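Archive entry. Fields below.
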Amino acid sequence: MIFVTVGSMLPFDRLVVAMDAWAAASGTLKVFAQIGESSYCPSHMEWEKMLAPDRFQEMLRRSSIIVAHAGMGSIISSMEIGKPIVVLPRRVEYREVTTGHQVDTAAWLIGKPGVFVSEDESTLAMAIDEALRFSSVGNGRIASTAPTRFIERIHRFLNE
Amino acid sequence: MRGTGAGSAIGEGPEVTKRILAISSGGGHWVQLRRISPAFAGMQVTYVSVTREYAADVAGAEFFAVRDANRWSRWSFAVLAWQLLRVCWRVRPDIIVTTGAAPGLIALIIGKYLFRARTLWIDSIANCQRLSGSGRMALRLADVCLTQWPSIEKDGRPAYWGAVL
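PREDICTED_STRUCTURE:
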């Protein structure tokens, strides 16, 4: 199963439309999408607008890969659970987001193990293929907490 | 606004346990707040975020849900400020820690000016070119304002202490 998520804040129709088309063409893998306040109704994927946190985690667990906007919530959650993630950054020029930070995020994620960046929807299918191949090899999950040095530094400040 | 869970007991003895108000918006902000939560060890923490369903992530700690206001609604801001005032009144935090965004900024202002709390702002790791809008406001107000990108650090304001990843 492929889990698609647009995050908890804004709709992202460009991703939802692209994944609906991918699901129609694929036929083999089931796709479940969290579509937010989208004005588009997918016809080849199961979908819901919003997921409670525990259902979101369940979808992460059940999926082979995640396809998401370049939001840190989606990305970190996928890394913590050790699932490959394909990210399509939201763009200001399409009014999908208010600042360009997702494009910046996607730029520094390129090359990170388990993360597959698709600059736009035309390369989405290729990134999905890569992620699916990565998934079958097996991969590690990151620690569920921040690096110790950072935590210790914060702890010292709190204790002052 | 409702609270859930039991707060941990204040330790007895000569040292009073510090009271932390740990607050964030949803999504990535909340995920990042949770990743730094081991820093609260030995302290009494109250978590605040924008959906009550996050309470399960911090089971056992006190949790309050507040409104998720954005910059476009003055009424939402007023309600949020009122909710945060009530939370702070109840918790009497020594320190406000926030990973942003708007709820964290408002809590920081309320905590600093009305409760004389120390304040720590941790800008999201998503902002790798410059501080977020609310982070730039926090820069002028917080005792410590952190960026998670060393290239953004500037003479300690903002400071770089590390990152959640």
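CURATOR_NOTE: Helices of chain A lie at 13-26, 53-62, 72-81, 101-109, 124-137, 148-159.
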